[in-house]
Amino acid sequence: MYVNRKHRTCLELGMLSELRKFPGNVSYSRIIQEIKSLNNDRKVHGILVQLPLPEHLNHKKVLETVDPKKDVDGLHPYNHGKNLLGKDCFRPATPRGIMTLLERTKTRLEGKHAVVIGRSNIVGKPIAVMLLNSDCTVTICHSKTRNLPSLCRQADILVAAVGKPHFIKANMVKKGAIVIDVGINRLKDGKITGDVDFENVRKKASWITPVPKGVGPMTIASLMENTVKACKEIEWPKNSD
Ligand code: NAD
Q1: Are 124 and 161 in contact (CB under 8 A)?
Q2: Which residues are identified as catalytic?
Q3: What average pLDDT does the segment 102-129 reach?
Q4: C-beta 148 within 6 A of ligand 1
């Protein structure tokens, strides 16, 4: 679903988008070779490695092969490090989209208690860092966290990136909180739902994102922003083709 949306949006915006598919048993060296050739391709400004990869491919090494200047997903350690330091870089698209949503609420983030549930490299960690760099007080929760409901109830901003349908109930949310639902969960009937019990939580929240049509489209938009940034900023070595 996500891959198709990215591809379609690129075409709508007039960007070249090419999907390169490989069989599940593709060799590590073949993937590395492909990424290196895209790194050197002047008509390419952004490279996305769609996760998860099959186990044998060592996704960390694959991600590290992407040129950080074309890493529009913001998943290269170089960009993670710069994000941590609050420096200009490619920030992962989902957290970047969340920050845009928060900006649009016109809420002053300074001093707000943000509780992030989830510590993945794609969502949880980078959004926690970005909220911290925006002067929030940040609590990061994960599968081993104790007293999760009581921590959630302290949140002025609650970000749920767990991957469990309706995990956040109304009794875990403070009145007036901003609730950002990152989760995308497919139910048995095929419907997509988030991590938040939207219908009940919305009665308490000051702002809340729905699923679908909340963080998802913002992720795509942020990815496109990152790609335009790459296109503007990339400098090719003078002696290359
Ligand atoms: P992940 O599986 O890598 O991480 C899930 C996190 O939830 C882990 O850090 C884990 O510690 C935590 N967790 C699991 N059970 C928990 C519990 N009982 N209590 C507290 N924490 C718990 O997933 P991810 O890649 O970060 O994605 C999270 C969700 O967001 C998924 O549903 C994914 O599909 C969705 N997602 C959406 C977008 C988007 O654009 N909207 C982008 C990326 C991911």
Answers
A1: yes
A2: 6, 50, 73
A3: 98
A4: yes
pLDDT tens for residues 80-96?
A: 999 999 999 999 999 99
User: What's the token pair of residue 60?
Assistant: 């960390």
Is the CB of 226 within 6 Å of ligand 1? no
Q: Is the pTM of this model over 0.90?
A: yes
Name the CATH superfamily housing domain 2-70: Leucine Dehydrogenase, chain A, domain 1 (3.40.50.10860)
pLDDT above 70: percentage of residues in the chain: 99
CATH superfamily of 93-217: NAD(P)-binding Rossmann-like Domain (3.40.50.720)
Question: pLDDT, tens digit, for every residue of 204-232?
Answer: 999 999 999 999 999 999 999 999 999 99
Torsion of CA 197, 199, 200, 202, to 10 degrees: 100
Q: What is the spatial distance between Cα 106 and Cα 164, in angstroms, rounded to a whole number?
A: 29
Instruction: Cite the residue boundaries of each domain of the chain with CATH code 3.40.50.10860.
Output: 2-70
